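Q: What changes when magnesium ion is included in the input?
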Amino acid sequence: MKRGDTVVVATKNAGKVKEFAHAFGKLGLNVVSMFDYPDLPEVVEDGLTFAENARKKAREVAEALGMPVLADDSGLEVEALGGDPGVYSARYAGPGATDTLNNAKLLMELEHLAKDSFTTDGKQNQLEDGTKLLSPARFVCTLALFDPASGKFMESIGFVDGQIASKPRGSGGFGYDPLFWLPTHGKAMAELTMEEKQAISHRGAALALLLGKLENHSE
Ligand SMILES: O=P(O)(O)OP(=O)(O)OP(=O)(O)OC[C@H]1O[C@@H](n2cnc3c(O)ncnc32)[C@H](O)[C@@H]1O
Ligand SMILES: [Mg+2]
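A: The predicted holo structure follows.
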């Protein structure tokens, strides 16, 4: 990839598109997404892992377009929920789920549990304004780049650890960002600028790894 090239990202998530456009823009690359190809058939995300879904999105779109395509499959793993919503993060609240409905569903599930198991050391798990920290959690992002000419994938994975807060904060980012508390920053993910989010996020980490692999590959 060289300055001026276009990267096709197989996503219909406007939040992801913004983050990729920002990251690739710094390298002089343009980003197009599935919003630019509205007629492509929908990819059914029925994989059991993030990696399977990322590969499926990348391969199907790359084969339809006849060019290399990058896909991102990501989600939230919440310890107290045994790793849920995981690969179901986008549709946690059911068909037609929105970020708002998914966040409400997450809080409902956790507050349910909190009554039994998270009350004893309440002080420690509480922010100054009374917001409770309900469970450790982790964002995961897998990236898959598929080149239909070679039939090969290049893949990477990134993580970021935090806590689920009982109240949303901030208006940046997307998805579960307002509920994802970063003890290291004393802020929710949605309170970070895009630049700050990229520096610490699961997507930023996965992208840095992938770019490193691409660089080695082209040498
Ligand atoms: O499949 P595409 O079209 O890329 O878009 P999507 O929104 O369906 O994306 P996923 O299938 O990968 O589902 C990931 C969900 O996990 C959540 N998520 C992923 N990355 C996130 C981030 O950086 N911040 C907050 N929530 C995130 C968010 O709810 C996403 O909808
Ligand atoms: Mg999806």
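Observations recorded in class: Residues 11-13, 16, 45, 72-76, 89-90, 102, 139, 173-177, 201, 203 surround inosine 5'-triphosphate (ligand 1) (CB under 6 Å).
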